[in-house]
Amino acid sequence: xxxxxxxxxxIAISVRSGRGFLNLRLNPRRGQALEAAExxxxxxxxxxxxxxTAGENEVYWLGPDEWLVATGAKRxxxxxxxxAEALGGFHAAVNDVSGxxxxxxxxxxxxxxxxxxxxxxxxxPREFVPGQCAQTGLGRAAVLLAAGDPSTCTIVVRRxxxxxxxxxxxxxxxxxxxxxxxx
Amino acid sequence: MAAGxxxxxxxxxxxxxxxxxxFSFDGRAFEGFAGDTLASALMAAGVSLVGRSFKLRRxxxxxxxxxxxxxxxxQIGEGAAAQPNLxxxxxxxxxxxxxxxxxxxxxxxxxxxxVNDFFGRVLGAGFYYKTFMWPRSWWKxxxxxxxxxxxxxxxxxxxxPDRYEHMNAHCDVLVAGGGPAGLMAALAxxxxxxxxxxxDEQNEFGGSLLASAxxxxxxxxxxxxxxxxxxxxxxxxxxxxxxxxxxxYHDHNFLTIAERCAVHPGSSNGEGVRERLWRVRAGQVVxxxxxxxxxxxxxxxxxxxxxxxxxxSTYIDRYAVLPGRRAVVFTNNDSAYRAAISLAGAGAEVAAxxxxxxxxxGRTGPAGELGARVQALGIPVLxxxxxxxVAGRRRxxxxxxxxWNGDSWGNVRSTIRMDCDLxxxxxxxxxxxxxxxxxGGRLDWDESRHxxxxxxxxxxxxxxxxxxxxxxxxxxxxxxxxxxxxxVSKLGLKPVAVRAxxxxxxxxxxxxxxxxxxxxxxDADRCPRQFIDFxxxxxxxxxxxxxxxxxxxxxxxxxYTALGFGTDQGKLGNxxxxxxxxxxxxxxxxxxxxxxxxxxxxxxxxxxxxGESVGELYDPVRTTAIHEWHEAAGAPMETVGQWHRxxxxxxxxxxxxAAVARECLAVRKSLGVMDASTLGxxxxxxxxxxxxxxxxxxxxxxxxKVGRCAYGVIPGEDGMLMDDGVMxxxxxxxxxxxxxxxGAAAVLDWMEKWLQTEWPELEVYLTSLTDHYSTIAAAGPxxxxxxxxxxxxxxxxxxxxxxxxxxxxxxxxxxxxxxxVSFSGELAFEINIDSNDALAxxxxxxxxxxxxxxxxxxxxxxxxxxxxxxxIIAGQDTDGSVTPVDLGMNWLLSKDKDFLGKRSLERPDxxxxxxxxxxxxxxxxxxxxxxxxxxxxxxxxKPAAMCGHVxxxxxxxxxxxxxxxxxxxxxxxxxxxxxxAALSGRDPLPVRIVSPVFYDPKGQRxxx
Amino acid sequence: xxxxxxxxxxxxxxxxxSYGGEAGIERPADPYAxxxxxxxxxxxxxxxxxxxxxxxxxxxxxxxRWFGVERDTVSYRIEKSYRLSGAGSGRPAAAHIEASKEKRx
Lengths: 183, 1008, 105
Description:
The complex is a heterotrimer.
Chain A: E1 12-16, E2 19-26, H1 33-41, E3 52-54, E4 58-63, E5 66-72, H2 76-86, E6 92-96, E7 101-107, H3 111-116, E8 133-138, E9 141-147, E10 152-158, H4 159-172
Antiparallel strand pairs in A: 1-7, 2-5, 2-6, 3-4, 4-5, 7-10, 8-9, 9-10
Helix pairs in contact in A: 1-2
Chain B: E1 16-25, E2 28-34, H1 38-44, E3 51-52, E4 59-60, E5 73-76, E6 83-87, E7 97-101, H2 113-122, H3 127-132, H4 139-150, E8 163-176, H5 180-191, E9 196-199, E10 215-216, E11 219-220, H6 221-233, E12 238-241, E13 244-250, E14 254-260, E15 273-287, E16 291-293, E17 306-308, H7 309-317, E18 326-331, H8 336-345, E19 349-355, H9 368-376, E20 381-383, E21 385-391, E22 398-403, E23 414-419, E24 422-426, E25 429-431, H10 434-438, E26 443-446, E27 451-454, E28 461-463, H11 473-490, E29 531-533, E30 538-539, H12 540-548, H13 554-561, H14 574-585, H15 589-592, H16 606-610, H17 627-632, E31 637-640, E32 643-646, H18 656-669, E33 672-675, E34 680-685, H19 689-696, E35 709-715, E36 721-731, E37 734-739, H20 744-758, E38 765-768, E39 773-779, H21 783-790, E40 806-811, E41 814-819, E42 828-834, H22 835-848, E43 855-856, H23 859-869, H24 908-911, E44 916-923, E45 935-937, E46 946-956, E47 961-969, E48 978-982, E49 989-994
Parallel strand pairs in B: 1-7, 8-9, 8-15, 9-12, 15-28, 17-24, 18-19, 18-24, 19-20, 33-43
Antiparallel strand pairs in B: 1-2, 3-4, 5-6, 5-7, 10-11, 13-14, 14-15, 16-25, 21-22, 22-23, 26-27, 29-30, 31-32, 33-39, 34-37, 34-38, 35-36, 36-37, 39-42, 40-41, 41-42, 44-47, 44-49, 45-46, 45-48, 46-47, 48-49
Helix pairs in contact in B: 5-6, 5-11, 7-8, 8-9, 12-14, 18-23
Chain C: E1 3-6, E2 10-13, E3 18-22, H1 36-44, E4 52-58, E5 66-72, E6 78-82, E7 101-102
Antiparallel strand pairs in C: 1-2, 3-4, 4-5, 5-6, 6-7
């Protein structure tokens, strides 16, 4: 296939390997549980819905009493134990879910436009700003989408859907020539 | 050799004469120019016959110039990339285009009067119901002939080679329609800082401006449009979508747009996009889709050469094509005078303008500028006259003109006959209120404009321009500006002042006078046909017949006469039809009302609806962490929910039955291994977890010791089994729950629903671990030896690690959780492991198991093994109407506590003794494997009452005979009884009711 | 496609949600005190009003919260969405009134 002709979308899709994940549930209104978790994590937990904090780990808001901690695969086991211990006195749940998630990085000037083919969120850089995340649908899979700079998004997807999602992304990023209006 | 372009004007138009394009129509070669539509190119080439009508096979020509075209319906392209049912007026011409009329039989140019006569006699209103449905057995003969003759186009004959895609978009203001009003609205909104999407169905923005002789702000209208578009392009957050039809206005300001991209069908090799579906959530919407000119209803008004007056202007001014040499213009309003002026300007002779108005006041035409202009051109005006009939069959040759006294239903005698090859008609204008109506907006009948106008909106939208009843260019521009500013204000933005442009367009029109049916020499049922809906051959007589036969409601008349069906959805004929219906019923038009407007506004391809969800992306395929091994092993896959699971692992060309028999025996005799990772897995923890699970499950959860496993079932509140699975107590306040593969999400949602809505006081957290853990089931007498060989850090003997317990362990150097549970009835271990390590573990297992002839097995063997043991599969053996009692699970139902569904088990219906209960079945002949779903009957006589059905059925290699599971009325008390299986094509087969546990009924093998 | 305001995540497309039926059905405190007919009424019978309807929705593809929605079954207009108080599965929570938001169309 000739590479002449209109350009393909400017987008690069990669898998971030070596990642570990913890699912964390606690009641933010109950005692000092949040603060106890923050001491172990070494960073603030996002309190606002659909935001994340980035530090040594990324901590994503999943629900009013649920978070996803993304960290290094090597660190996840110890971090999980430390969190479980620190939260021992609270009603909390810490689960290692490293095997259950795949993290993808989507970068490029057309990244958001390609994502918009399969996502009903408003991904305009003014609307979906760095620090925001959202659980939503992409293609026909459920994903966690997080905004980096205007040309970068992180996608966390359940492992069993990751093959489908990578095929979907590759397909959506493929066609050349079609006018891709900036969102 | 391509035919010439005899009707092409020497200059003018928006075509590029330096780019000739060769194309073919109906097998003949033609040439047009870039900028042409297929319709304008055909007309330039002098093709006046473009198809035949639906029922009556009458020759038909091009009537319109846009989405309203009813006759020129084309099949474009061949083979897999073919596109059926496109109006030629919306097909942009391109080189090599290959078009055929979809409505051609028995041949566009081949005229059979006999065919016409035959169809004409039998195909009156309601012909579907009256003629063809009776006698019923004849329909299959009729259908073939009708489909062939009706010409619905042909579906592509292979998978579509092109790509389609979806695009979700959000905007503050969506403007539908890029004519004068739409451009002004978009400018007003975008300049005020709103995010704007402007979509127009044509490939060029401007709408009517592209064929307008007017000037705006001192420049020609089309030039002004181009500069407006340029200005919009320069603004941030303004998306311009040409060749894009807003076809659906759905709830909550969600609109769908079909964009035709630059890729020609079949040419992209999947590299480009042929069509794109925009799914837009808009804050506010401006509807500026213009209006449709109405034809006039007179005898033989469907003859080729009878065209909409506005279309005549468009072909002349936009495409430089002259539709006729000698024209009669027939109108009841001023707008058609412009067609006369265009015709005269292009060198055609206008024999007369026949104007139904001004009959009483002795004037000979309209006052004002238009009147003066036609007078200056020397065009005669016949005021107070109508065209009552036209002559000519394959092309109009003349018009019969009569004086009119204002009575639509009387008879008239034509006194004037004029030769002509074109009759340009205008019966007034109908705003394109489709989207407004789809959005739930009300319509009001306007007594002065004689059309339905958009009234109160139900969603956030404004109508503007001709679509809002503003006919003049000056009004259109101002109305668009107003609507854009209104939309911006509604959004809470401050509208930036935009000046309304100035135009020299005609002002001060004379009012339209209604003319819904032109009287003829004989009454409406006996005069030559007066067409209302060209595409469906619906005539005035058909509507009168429907009313005579008792139809009153417009929706019923529509269905009885087929008015407004078809690919054009009645854009030309609907309002005329409703007005005629009102006339016949003696009602006012608003009393009759309109039929319901539904998406899609114009036809939309299946491809663009599907978008990316085709082929392997049709539905997500979920795979386990071990999937690649299964694929490499050549296992066919079975789809379970969205999962692809290995069905069986054939060796050396084995078929399903041979492979499954081998796999089953391997598990029973030595060692099998299965990937059970698709099971749903939930971590449940919290101080109230026992109380919570007691309410969800039927057994005594609290009595389970830490490390114990239990089989549990989850009923709905109606007592019917919803899901089942093994659960394990992994801590004082922690449980590990498993669900069926298909039930994973539903069970988690069910539990969360109760926690969140009914029992928020219970402190329990649920976390899905389905994807995190992979599950490998090692089953068979050698499964313990396998684990020992792999190296396990805990003792595996029966006393240390008994049946139905769980232990964390290190196996083969990897951290796992072991469960001593069995879905096969054999000694078995389920190994739960982090999915990141699962494939490595599987490989180690296969390696270590070699000495036991370890046999991987798939879902089919799993099903057979569990059926031999009488274990249910929720969703296969149950269907939402089966209680745990029906399944023989009374032992699972705690008497010491309440649980969801328990009360329902005491409902009289759940206590009926003749409920269908789950039992085993054995074929008496010892060899017939009953098809699943087979109905069961008591005795073999006919007719026989059904008493149950087969839910699962297999050949058991281990037992050497078929086994089946079934739901049988009162079955649990009927063991030993012989009933019959009703088999298709053979005598009922005697089957014996037995216990559902066929193998190892005491359950000793799993306890070793 | 409806635009539904999740009380936590804000307005999201209908495809992210699943429908949970009529809200405000109070589960009888003692099911056994009910006659079979009364129990069947609780189990099976639901209002089907023309107009205002309170219903449960679940943000299945989002925060996994169940919440209440007041929707007009004729116009489909959503008047408000609200967090739940628990028992009765559908009463607006007094403690969460701040979350009840006027919905745009």
